[in-house]
Structure formats: C-alpha cells, structure tokens
Design goal:
With 232 residues, this protein is α/β, with parallel strands linked by helices. It has ten helices and ten strands.
C-alpha cells in the first residue's frame, strides 16, 4: 500500500531517529526523502510511482479498451492534484480531465459524491491514483465504477481481483518482500539515509474479461496477449 502524500509531517512528528522502511508514491516530491539514491534521513523504502511515463501508459492502455474515452476523471486527493495535476478542465494529449478531487474525511460519502460529480461531468472513464486513500476504498471504488458503467484503470492488481476492469502497476507482493529485505539490512547495521529508495522496473498488466463484457467493451487480442494475467 502506498504512503499518503502527507505522511512526512506525521513521521517527523513521531520520530526523526528511528529507522522507517515504507512504500511511497512520491518520496522526493512529497519531501519524505531528499533523493532516491541517498534518502538522507531516517526513512527509506520503495517507490510505487515512477512518474509521468507510467501514467501515460495507463491512459494509453485504457483508451485501447475504451477508444472513445476522451473525457477522463482522475480519482486522486486534493493534495496530489494541487501539486501534480492534472487540474479539472485541463486538456492534455487530446484528453480533457474532469471531476473534483477527494477531500477529507475520505469516507464513503466523499467517494460517492465524487463519482456522482464524474457522471454529471460526463466522464467517459476514470484513472485511479496509487494513493493509500484509494487503496483502502478499492472495493467501494470498483463498486461505484460498475454502478455508473465507467471503465477504469487501476494502479494495482488487487483492484482487478475485486472486480475492476484493468490495472497497470507494480507487483505489490514483490515490493513487500523488498521492504522486508531492506528492513533486515537496516537491522544488521545499514543506515536508512544511505539505503537507496528502490524503484521498480517491471510493471504488470492485469485485465478482468468478465468486467469488460459487463461494460460492453471488447479487449483487443494484442492486449490480452500482452497481459501478465487475464481474469475470466
């Protein structure tokens, strides 16, 4: 599960000396570490987000399954949207971004309100962020995407296992094992400040054919061949 964008202040308030090994979405940009190669403090771990190329690939994959999707909703928190975008109404690469961000208290009512707004804004499909807030509510998000017949691409396989359409992202069990190994190294004397943040290089594509059929979508054969896993 990725680390929320605001965790730097929480960790700083808790301790600046006890080593912390965590999974993070934006470790440098969020100010959690000073650099990926040399974190520089008491926090290290793994990154689940490697930047714009990864998100561009998600949009590309989603549009292969839903070619008419040009109005996309980005399901993310206000903190991430304000810092990284895209903003509501922004047009990038032929895509118009619609919908409001998620605001505290991040409860079920908030998610239902945002989805209602996406429908009112005529969203064709949605891209779901890799923040912990969406991970925690993954079953609800999948349920709402199904209710409103919105094709969606998710950051982790676990969303697809819950009934989501498709995902493109890191192998979370593999990252968990990496975190355990890093924690073991630190317990043996390695310094978090000098232990590089691990960036994954392999990403997995998972497709749920049952969900695609329920949405009236046809998954191209080339995409099925490229998928790491197809759920039927």
């Amino acid at each position: 599960m990725p680390l929320p964008i605001f965790s730097r202040s929480i960790f700083k308030a808790a301790t600046t000396t006890i080593p912390i090994v965590a999974s993070m979405a934006f470790p440098v940009e969020a100010g959690i570490v000073t650099s990926l190669a040399r974190p520089g403090g008491n926090i290290t771990g793994t990154a689940v987000d490697v930047g714009q190329e990864q998100w561009g690939k998600r949009i590309q994959l989603l549009q292969q399954v839903s070619p008419q999707a040009t109005r996309l909703g980005f399901l993310n928190t206000r903190a991430v949207r304000e810092q990284y975008g895209p903003k509501e109404g922004e047009v990038t690469g032929g895509v118009t971004w619609v919908g409001q961000p998620l605001d505290p208290p991040m409860d079920e009512a908030v998610f239902r309100r945002v989805f209602t707004g996406l429908v009112q804004d005529r969203a064709d499909a949605i891209v779901v962020s890799d923040e912990s807030e969406t991970w925690v509510k993954r079953k609800l998000i999948v349920e709402l995407a199904e209710k409103y017949q919105l094709p969606a691409i998710y950051p982790f396989k676990e969303f697809v296992e819950a009934g989501g359409l498709m995902s493109y992202g890191v192998d979370t069990p593999a990252l968990a094992r990496r975190i355990v190994d890093m924690a073991d190294q630190i317990l043996k004397g390695a310094k978090p400040s000098e232990t590089p943040i691990y960036q994954p290089t392999k990403f997995e594509l998972v497709i749920n054919l049952k969900t695609a059929k329920a949405l009236g979508l046809t998954v191209p054969a080339t995409l099925l061949v490229a998928a790491d896993e197809v759920i039927e």
